[in-house]
Amino acid sequence: MASQGSNRENPHRGRPRTGSRVAAVQALFQAEQAGTASETVIDEFIRHRFGAAPADTSADESFADGRIPEAHVPLFASIVRTATAQQDTLDPAIAAVLPDEWPLERLDPVLRALLRAGTAELWSADGPPARVVINEYLDVAHGFFDGEEPSMANGVLDRLARRLRPAEFPASE
């Protein structure tokens, strides 16, 4: 079960790239739920959710309220744009590695957004190493979920990484 806005501490303080990934998951979730264009959501996040919180708000309170004090904006925008522009390609790739009893449409919408964001990064051959992407999204998943979802995300992203970037995984693995 999703625990958005849970009592967890800010997992990305001092980690702007992780903050970008958290924001990308939130933006993809918002775009899907509201039926909003990705560019509109990107603009909203940049103008209203990134940067320092008002002076009377602690950093942890601002995180719980959806603010991302530290984020690498180009990475955030790239993830959201790739995930939405390539969704017709990425969704079947994700669906192909999901367990049969868990079709993409059945997944929690936050988990679906997380898998789309992670797959978008894996899709970019010039992005960070696959293992870095997987570990980052595992951390992000732990920020949103208390149950089995992080394990599922880890397994799905690992299988996708091996398909999309086989050169990064020795044949002996």
- The count of DSSP E runs of length 2 or more, i.e. the number of strands, is 0
Give me the CATH superfamily: NusB-like
User: Which CATH C-level class is it?
Assistant: Mainly Alpha
How many structural domains are formed by the residues?
1
Report the CATH topology name: N-utilizing Substance Protein B Homolog, Chain A
First-last Cα distance: 32 Å
What is the succession of H and E elements?
HHHHHHHH
Computed Rg: 15 Å
Main beta-sheet strand count, sense and barrel state: none
Strand content: under 5%
Assigned CATH architecture: Orthogonal Bundle
Number of helices in the DSSP assignment: 8
3D shape: globular
Which regions contain 5 or more consecutive residues with pLDDT less than 50? 1-12
Question: Roughly what is the average pLDDT, rounded to an integer?
Answer: 86
Proportion in helices: 55-70%
Q: Which class of secondary structure composition applies to the elements?
A: mainly alpha
